[in-house]
Predict the structure of Ion-translocating oxidoreductase complex subunit D.
Amino acid sequence: MALITVSSPHAHGPMSTATVMRLVLLATLPGVFALTYFFGFGTLTNILFAALLALGMEAAILKIRKRPIGFYLNDGSALVTAILLGIALPPASPWWILAVGILFSIVFAKHLYGGMGYNPFNPAMVGYVVLLISFPVQMTSWVAPIGNFDGSVLGPIDALVRTFSASSVDAVTAATPLDVLKQNNSLLIEDLWASNSQFGSLAGVGWEWANVGFLLGGLFLLYKRVFTWHAPISMLIALTLLSAIFYDGGSSASGGSPMFHLFSGATMLGAFFIVTDPVTSAVSNKGRIIYGACIGVLIYLIRVWGNYPDAVAFSVLLMNFAAPLLDHYTQPRTYGHKKKTLQKETD
């Protein structure tokens, strides 16, 4: 009888790898719904095309590697990678952007290292960073949210046309609120909010509700015990503390309030769907706390003083490098052994 060698993570009983992946997919629905409502159907076209590409590339690589295709496709990991990348990309991204991103996510970041369980870096974030560095114009052309400019968003047909023939649909694009704040050097925060219809109550129009949606999905996964609280909560606390320390009340040089950073960009998506990746994060609870906190610090540093308005992908990949080191120095003590204590020498 042929035995299948499967790498980590290992899950038993009702919480199999496939079950965990399906729960993650289910948890993304509130955030995807918010993105679709405020930015149109472009996010859905991203997700659908990216999913088809990911499944096709996964099957092709598995065939080349002579691995059981059905067994590995059924675990849902390729689908989760595709959906996370599709969510992170600007709505209705050109098809070739999606193809390049999936290629680097599935082929290079995942299977080049041996497949699921062997990849040291989060595959979706690798694909995103490759695209951001290689195609900065396309990666920063976000569709304007509902209520801005002409007040409309992309419908399903327009989104498909824009994806496969970008020049056919003249959609209105705008900089993200994080980018607007980063480029501001003359207006007080209060005046910037009043002069730009992209800003809502806490952060940007649409962005705040998308983050609320991913927060709800993350709490659902915590309730289902898909992951522990250590990494996501420590990331959010670190981001909150650092933004509170450096918040100057709203001057023209302000980096933004804590609530702005919590509900802007990919904060909640990163905290509950990226940072919690069991393969590329730290393993011990203490290590996860340090891992998440460092990501929160890096997100703020890059957002405010770096060259990119959002920084979740870069922060996660940088800490993926450090995860093995954290695991080495935060190993829990072996069961049945006490911590070493210094004893005074007696005469």
